[in-house]
Amino acid sequence: MSEHDHPLQRAAARELEEAHGLSPAEAAERAARMHERLHRRFGTWVRRELIIQRREDHSEKSREVRGEERAAASGGELFERLSLNIRLQHATMAVSVIVLVITGIPLKFHASGWAKAIIGALGGPDVTPIIHRVGATGLIIAGLWHLFYIAFTREGRWNFKQLIPMPKDAVDAFKQIVYYLGRTDERPKFDRFSYVEKFDYWAVYWGMVIMIGSGTVLWFTDFWLRFVPKWFTDIAKEAHSDEALLATLAIVIWHFYNVHFNPHKFPMNRTFITGKISELEMREEHPLEYERLIQRRQNARQSARDPEPSQASRDSLPASEGGSGGHSRREGGEERREAPPQSGGRGGRR
Amino acid sequence: MRRLLALAAAFFVADLVTAQAPPPEPNGNAAAAARQCNICHGKQEFKTVRPDGSVRPLFVDEAAIRDSVHGKWQCTDCHADVDKIPHPAPLAQVNCQRCHFGGNPVGAPERINYEGYVKSVHGRLRLAGNTKAPLCQDCHGTHGIRKHTDPTSRVNKAQVPSTCGRCHVEIYADYQRSTHGQSLLTKGNLDAPSCTDCHGEHSILAPKETASDVSATNIPETCSHCHGSMAFNTKYEIPINPVKTFKHTFHGIANELGSKKVAQCASCHTAHAVLPAADPQSSVNPANIPATCGKSGCHEGANANYARGRFHIDPTNRDSGIIYWVALFFKILTISTLAALLVHILLDLVKKLRHGHAGGHHGE
User: How far is B161 from chain A (nearest CA, A)?
Assistant: First the structure.
């Protein structure tokens, strides 16, 4: 009888027999009746307990999602991708661009109510040009800062070299599309900067040149008109207005998708604040850089064990494989022997 | 406001006083009654000498009255204070509102924008005691009032400039020289604007008043009544829509957003001496552009470079030269870039959503 075989039922029958002095037959019968109810209650209890546990798991997970613990938990080591210098450049530019867009784009849609509302709220057409020029100053500072960065810092030069478009980028783009279309499961392997990132960089470069160039003509029209004919300033006006729209749309659609609304990054890729990416992200998004990094690290470890470190291998080490300049390079060269996972990895600042 | 009330009250009281007599009615004896006045006023040589020594003719042309809109009324219907002959001089100012008020029993036109007049710059000055400011009869005339549709009426479109010009002498001179004035006064082209087409009629406000049709912020709208339509512009060989193209310049944008500092139509073309750019007298003739741009502290030190290029540019028009090509370049660049980016986003999104939920880099 399978019913008797159930441990719960057997336990109940024994209890009835021993503690309550029932006859075995009666105990078995009662136990059989009790079994179904017990089973149901037990099931309810298990379900409730499971729900509670699941909820705890979930809240623990979402807590982890915030901050670096999550990245560390899912990806191991953290890699510094954006140095403090470049993050500050980005912040300066981002704030400036937001100011410029808010005070500039309404001019392109001057006939619509929302444009009038924004300009009115900011103090009217005699005030917003001043705000716009404050934003412009910020953008010019960011632009000059960046030019100095790529010209006069080792880190900047190294990053800039990696940003130069190569034939591989066209091939990568093609491969990526093929992958998107499901023709292959193999994704192109990106180095430090994928073709998408290179496009972003050069789009901004182009935008800065056009906007600052034409904007300066418009800002100092009377000065410029001492030397150039009016049609030159007309070109500046047209270019400024058109490129403004293109840049704004590119930022809102493309950049915001890549760093905010992309399902893998939503609601926000925090790298522009922390400067770090997880090992998993590193392996998935920049496998070539990752592999090279690991290789270098092994070489470094090797040379550290060697009494005479190979000069060649140290020289070929980029200024900053992790992107944070000579400081971390020194760390990388001398100290990174065991590279504990949580120490920030190559280029990490702990 | 208090002044307005006072004025309204004054007129109301005047109304009551004059309305003591029954409302005037067409009278078969009008001719006979007029003949009585004609005893004196029918004589060409009937004049008076004012205290300042000037001579004022007192002759009244009976024929002019008979042909006027008031031909059927007696002299005393308007000059209601005449109750005996000879009457003491001078008579009170005729009050048109005796008849021209809403719901009047004698069928006098009621469309009269009396409210507008009271609030207008003319009405307010008059109320403030400026006797040079015009009353109804100063523009519409006295004995020879005719409908505005009558070409001989002082308020007929073609006559308005000379009517206004009685006081606004210099502006009238500018206007007569302008393309608008020449068209209307010399060529009799009724497409051309008279004073009232831009300034309004009874409710004329000073240009510095925001609500004025010719205030800095309203001028483009006022000019667009004619120049906003390409049918009109092509008729007069203006190849582009000057209002639409203005609105796309920084001047036009700031103007539309409410700036009173920036140049609007009249800043460059002048308010009354508007002339085609080809005319050497025009403020927008290339030779005069430096002076025009440089005036009133706008672009101090403006030089000939300010005239080198097109004005009123429509970037979508192939005739706009280099601007057309620049605009086209950016249009193509924008559309192609965004199309490529959107396709890339869409492909990426579809792939990622298909390959697992949002929120992690869990192996694909």
Answer: 35
Count how many Cα atoms sit within 13 Å of the Cα of residue A188 in the half-sphere of its side chain: 19
Domain boundary among A277, A297, A330: A277
Cβ pair A234:B302 closer than 8 A: no
Say yes or no: A166 and A249 in one domain: yes
Q: What is the pLDDT along chain A (350 residues), one digit of tens a residue?
A: 444 577 878 888 888 888 888 888 888 888 888 888 888 888 888 888 888 887 777 666 666 555 544 555 455 788 888 999 999 999 999 999 999 999 999 999 998 999 999 999 999 999 999 999 999 999 999 999 999 999 999 999 999 999 999 999 999 999 999 999 988 888 899 999 999 999 999 999 999 999 999 999 999 999 999 999 999 999 999 999 999 999 999 999 999 998 888 887 778 888 888 888 888 888 888 888 888 888 888 888 888 877 554 444 444 444 444 444 333 333 333 333 333 333 333 333 33
Q: Say whether B254 and A180 touch across the interface (CB within 8 A).
A: no
Given a contact cutoff of 8 angstroms between Cβ atoms, the answer to whether A143 and A208 are in contact is yes
For the domain that residue A164 is a member of, what is the CATH number?
1.20.950.20
Cα B94 to Cα B140: distance, rounded to the nearest angstrom: 13
Task: Point out the domain boundary residue: A23, A38, A65.
Answer: A65
Chain A residues within 8 A of B263 when measuring between CB atoms: none
Our count of domains for chain A comes to 3
In a domain, A70, yes or no: no
Query: CB–CB of A79/A276 below 8 Å?
Result: yes
Compute the distance between CA of residue A247 and CA of residue B338 in angstroms, rounded to an integer: 10
Asked if the C-beta of A189 comes within 8 angstroms of chain B's C-beta atoms, the answer is: no
The answer to whether residues A8 and A53 belong to one domain is yes
Exposure letters B248-268 (e unless 16+ CB within 10 A, then b):
bbbbbbbbbbebeebbbbbbb
- Residues of chain A with C-beta less than 8 angstroms from the C-beta of B245: none
Of A228, A239, A242, the CB nearest to B305: A228
